[in-house]
Amino acid sequence: MPSRPATPRGLALARLAWGLATLAAIVATFVDAAARGPVNPFNFFGYFTIQSNVLLVLVALAAGIVGLVRPGVQPRWLVAARGLATVCMIVVGLVYVTLLLPVHAAGGVEVPWANAVLHIFGPLLVILDWALTTDRTALPRSAILWQLAYPLAWTAVVLVRGATDGWVPYPFLNPSQGYGTVALYVAAIAVVFLVISWLVVWWSRKRP
């Protein structure tokens, strides 16, 4: 019988290193924001970029530790978490490149190297990790639906906050431009989430 795919030690260490690098970028962003004035944690952690990268930190550290302690096929809960982090980080990269970068918006990350880590290198590395490694099981097709639960909940909270206290994390969600325009952006991003989630699940089943 063929041996079960194992997590190479180097890959496990690389995941740990990237998890720590991402954590450093988040901390640097928080310190930079605090140096310019009081930081409202609900605002700071309200950015989808920050939340997705926090998820990436947790997943990368867990994947690295599990890979070192038990270098075999990773447990299903961890594979599911990796899939969700992959979907979220790909969307982070796409939104940054298509909606924020053209208008020179930092997306809440003013430190240049941290911005690159959180918005560019993070999405690229999760794509490579998901596409090239095999230390995981296939995700069920139902994962496509529950992977959408988190971004839908985040969008709902942002829209409520925009309508009440006026805070929105990204300019394309600002209700001042009209809720029709905001709805178009939300619908477009929802379609992007659905397509990316389908691709992530499909690839996990094609190459488990």
TrEMBL record:
Segment forming the signal sequence: none
Q: Enumerate the transmembrane spans.
A: 12-35, 47-69, 81-101, 113-132, 144-162, 182-203
Would you tell me the protein name for this molecule? Pr6Pr family membrane protein
User: InterPro entries from the xrefs?
Assistant: Pr6Pr-like (IPR049713)
Which keywords does this Swiss-Prot/TrEMBL entry list? Membrane, Transmembrane, Transmembrane helix
At the top level, the lineage of the source is Bacteria
Q: Does the keyword Lyase apply?
A: no
